[in-house]
Amino acid sequence: MTAGVKSAGRSSTLRALQVTTKDLIVGEINNVMAAMRLNSRWSSRSRQLRPGAESPLLKGFRTLREQLETVQDIAQEDALFYLQPFLSVIRSQETSGPITGVALHSVSRFVEGLLSVDQPNAKSCIEGISEAATHCRFEATEPGSDEVVLMKILQVLGSCFKSPVGLLLSEEQIMEMIQTCFRMSSQPRLSELLRRTAERTLIEIYEIVFERLSHHHDETNRGSYSLKCLETMIHFACNNINPPITVNGETDRMESAICLLGLTMAGTIVETSVKKIIEYPSLAKLFQFQLTRKLLQCCHCDDLIVITTGLRISLHMFINMMEHLKPQIEMFFTSILLLIEKRQELTYEKHEAILETLLDFCRHPTFLTLLYLNFDCDFRCNNLLEGICVFLQKSAAPVNGELTTIHMLAVECLAAIATNTFNRLQLDNSENDISPFQPKLRLIGQMKRMKGMIQNGVEKFNAKDQTAIAYLQQCGILPAETDSQEFYQKYALFIRYAYGINKGKIGEFIGSRKDLNKKVLSEYVQTLDVSSHEIHTCLRAFFESFRITGESANIELVLTPFTDHFFEAVGLPFLNADAVYTLAYGIILLNSDAHNRQVRVKMTENQFIYNLRGANNRSDYPPDMLKVIYKHIRENEFKIPEEYLNNVSEATWEQLPNKYSPEAYRVFGSQFTLPPSFFPLSNQLEASLYDFSSFSVLYSPFVNAISSVFKGTNDDMVLDELVKYLNMIVHIAASYNLTEAVDSIVVGHLLSFSNNDRQITLLKYATQIATAVTPTNETSPTTLFGQNKKALLAMKVAFSVTKKYASWVREAWKTVIPFILLLNKLSLLPTFLEKYELNDPSNSAKAPKKETKSGASLWNIGSSWFGLSPTTPSKTDEVDTTEDTTYDIMEKDPQAEKNAQEAVKGIDIPEILTISSTIHSDSLKALILAVLANCGKADMFKNTPSKEERKNALFSMDLLTSIALANSQRITEIWTPISDHLSSVIETSSKMNEYTEKSIVNLLIIAIRLSQSNTLDVTVIMTLQSLIKMNTNLADVAAKKVTYGISQLVETSPDMIKTSIGWATLSAFLDFSSSFSTSESGGFKILANLLTKSNLITKSSFSNWITLIIFFTKPRCSASTANSAMELLWSLFRFIPELLQLKPDTPNTEETQEAWDGYWYPILHQLSVLCQDHRSEVRSHAINFLQRSLHYNHLQKLPPSVCYQCFQQTPEKQEVGNNNATHSMEEIRTRGFNLLKSVYLQYLLQVTQLPNFRDLWLQILEFMEAFGRPDNSEHLVEGVREGCKIILLIMSNSGLFSGKSDASEQSKRIWEDTWERMDRFYPSLKQEWISVTPEDFPQNPSTAQPQEPAQPQAQRSTPAQPTPAPQSAQQSTQPTQSTQAHPVMELASRPKSPSSATDV
């Protein structure tokens, strides 16, 4: 039941449709017949009833109406059944315009509503309609009515293509319909409305045809037109794109209209089916070799609409077909850039149109990246991206100082490129795998590097540089072996394919008759593609690759290898190589004849053929071939494409792909991976991999363009846009670590700004003011600065970039720092630097601080830092202390100056110190170098410096110090240049000046602050040593403050002396301080404070401490300081047991020996030396400390070997026996002998245990003899004699001194030696001794003869020295590691000369 209902429904619908169709046809029949009856011709005929009187046209309609009554299903009938009467009316020349118009309208309705592809004979129907419409004839009445008919024709043509039946139209019919529309659109006599309607119909036809192509994937499908039809339509559109020629400044309007219509047709094709056309090589070839050439020619015409339309079509075509249009794209952009450079040929509107199109190119996400990959990295191509960026930079620069939309468009283009890069930076690619792109990435990088080498070689080749070959060999492009086949092949490839080689230079090279050049020429012709077998095509490719000059001999030289190569590859129809040569030469002559304006009578085709008769080895060339050659040459002149970019022939255009032959890469050798003909991009991720390289090309032109527009505009909105662009590009540059880009932004916007109509450079102001040449009637520079909002904005931007991206700033610091100095000079800079001073607190109460007048010499300030009174400077140190009144006589605007101050305050320059501690080390080093470049020099005060120089130098030094302290954790990275500068200033300054003074103070401050933060490095300590290398005059002035600074340093970082460098530095400074009276006490205070820290005194440093103390005992120091130093020696002496952990009860012989040699003896020796000092107070203190030391409890139990060493060395008797000593020295000798006596008796028990005790006793006897002679003072002689008695009595009681028979052998020998010496200076002692102890003498005292009194020393010769007894085996085993004499003995043996002695 359901099926039956559905069937009944379809039947009723069909019946309703049939009724509607009949009514429609009948209605249209009535309309046409009614129109015909209104015409007098048809109305008279309709009244006549005689046979044959009725018009065939009317009869046809009546017949049709009758037949319709019998038709059951019109859809099954042939459409011509009801269309024929209407088509007859349309074809008839008898019908008037209104009648034809009604018939056309009826046919249009039938096509739109009735015709179907499935109808019988549908193809014939649509062809009949097409033929009738395109060949429509009617009687002309009035123009208005006639144009209505023409409008109806266009309506029918459009309906044919809109209907599905239109797919059945043949190629000829389609082209005839297109031609009909085109003729209507190009008829000047027709109204504008009709022409525009015809154009609109024509464009609709193209839209319908190519839209159907884009929706079907098979050209054989019924839904699409034939491939041949599409080719014809494209060819038709291209043939009508002929740029109008301007004559006397006027362009033919119709030519422009036709060209514009052709462009519109081509644009329709591109917009509707460009991506589909790529799939059809024959269609793509038309785009490559026809459309692109026509579009390029349009860009060079003078019609703005034609230019704009051509550029728009080029945009769509290049973006969508880039992979297939590489040669054309290069030619297009190269031509456009060349056109822009010739500004005399470019109108403002044309320039603007080109920039607008470029803006669309730049906005494409990946187009410019593709340009970089496929052109800038290909050595066969021009650097398109670089060229576009440079072109945009030039376009952004105002020519006459006036800013226009062109300049902003150029900046927007560059900004669009940067925006694409910026947007890709925002993508999160952390999880994306880029490994699939790595091989391609490496290949691109390798190609770019090779292109750089190739381009350098090209420059050398063009300049005829003799080193060109050597350079290419060094780069590996040419083999090292010059005379080889490989060398000639690669050299030929180089000059054939490398971009930029001058064509004339190539002609000169291959036209040379040198052996090398001939061999390269032979390989050069081998690079030509002769696969086309067309001699004129191959000859064109050959002669358009270079420019040959000279006579026919030169042409013959290069033509012979070409003909040989062509004949070898082609052969027939040529019978030998000479036949090829003759024809080739004839073609060259034909080219000259056809295109030389001086030749008025041109060669005809028959003449050309006749001239070549019998030249093919006595035979004729094929006539058809010669005709083709003649036509080709006449229509296409031989031209070098790069020299005729706006008028390249079609034949030359077709040769462009030869330039991109893969053979070119054979120049790099077989190991090089052959790149594809085109590098596509798969996605944004892959594009981002090349953004760094492309941005490296972009940033410099972009920054320069922004700077140009920035200087030329005062519009706030434009300025805001420029600032936004700057922030974007600096962000990109920082992301890619491109420090040059950041530098260029800072430099470009800080150096200069625009003020009214003149260029104002801030550094220029600084120079004018510093040299006092600014006219007094000019406005203050501070006022000018504050009045210029753009200048303030430039400063704000520059410092914002500097602070935000400081880690990427390098060379720009050299601009930032002078700018800061300039602001400081203009008194715009807030006080933010610490005034580094070294004031001794002990002097603060003594010298009240005095206020320093503004503008006064900083020497007074510096002197107060040192706690010194300023001295009168020498001529070389004089400075100008007058007030700078330059600003006072200038006009000032308080509000403007307030604006400047607030602007400077807003940029927060002090923050630079804060961020310096976090920036990259390379940036920090660059900052340090920039500051040092503005610091003073050691000799800057030899000539009187200007106020600006002094102010800048002192400010820079404080800034340098602040930066160094802010980066205390990285001081080692930046200290070398700072150290070099400070050392140079301090060491080379001959006299004190304010900058040298500041250098000294700031160096000490840096060291002190670093020690406080535990970051004091050994390199800083080494720099401090420059302070002791100062000139003597300079050191005398600075010694006190230097010593105070060192004291603070040592106080904060005492552990620094634990290093070798630290100790050497401290030792040098203490020696330095002890050399000047002003610093002596300060230096000693440092030493005393250090010795209070027992942890600093170690075994290894003990001797060094003694050396430091000795510095302050030297004669240059005061007696009080020397006495204090001896107290330190005594303190060290007492510290030895604790240091060595000695036990006085049970001394160890080895430990005691070590303590004596390395610790006790050096101190005792120094005390003994001081006992002979020329200062009586020092001598007295020295003896006291020596006595205290020798009686120190730890020395009471010295081992015998150590005790013996105290008396080992005997002083020289000539010194000891000097009789010219003064009274003071006699007193010292008395005290010295008493000390010797007490020490001897103290250690008597120990030394008697030694086997060589007798030798020691003989030495003591010698001392007693020297001091006990009568020629000495009575007090000294009496003291010596009394001392002898005491010693002998104690030795006698000990059994060491006895003459008894039972006494020991040693005692007897000592007895004999003693009395032998006593007889010389104290003979009466023997009688006294006999009277006291006669039993000690072996003979009877009563019979003993008294000895003869001893003669005075001066009256007799000195007896011979007793020969020492030979040492026993035991003696030989005694320790001998120390042979030093006891200090007491040295004291007794070294009396000072009278000239150096002083009273006690």
TrEMBL record:
Gene Ontology MF term list: guanyl-nucleotide exchange factor activity
GO cellular component: cytoplasm; endomembrane system
One of the GO biological process terms: vesicle-mediated transport
Region (Disordered): 1334-1400
Positions of the SEC7 domain: 443-636
Listed InterPro entries: ARM-type_fold, GBF1-like_TPR, Mon2/Sec7/BIG1-like_HUS, Sec7_C_sf, Sec7_dom, Sec7_dom_sf
Low complexity: compositionally biased ranges: 1344-1381
Domain of life: Eukaryota
Gene3D superfamilies for this protein: 1.10.220.20, Arf Nucleotide-binding Site Opener,domain 2 (1.10.1000.11)
Name of the protein in question: SEC7 domain-containing protein
